[in-house]
Amino acid sequence: MHDDLFLEVKYRDPEKKSAFRVVRLWRDTHRLAREERKTPVLALREKGTHGFWLMMHSSDLQHVAACALDAQGESTPQVDAHRLRVLSKSLHESLGDYLDGTE
Length: 103
Description:
By secondary structure, the chain is mainly α. It contains 4 helices and 2 strands, in the order H-E-E-H-H-H.
């Protein structure tokens, strides 16, 4: 699907017991972030391990990436906006029908 990324998509019915628990946690985080008018990013880490996982909604990818670049002092708005649009479009195109739930 993508030259550099290994992408895997899992689907669950949010109304069923099999729904992702982490998505429920993200929704709770989203409610809190909305109260503060912020973009929710859920960081997950296991005790005794290095690194962590970041969970965000796909519609927030461009904003989160821009914030990360800005925090590193590497942000040039015109270039970054274009690069982030290309990245987001590339991910959506790479996933194709998986994102639509048709495959």
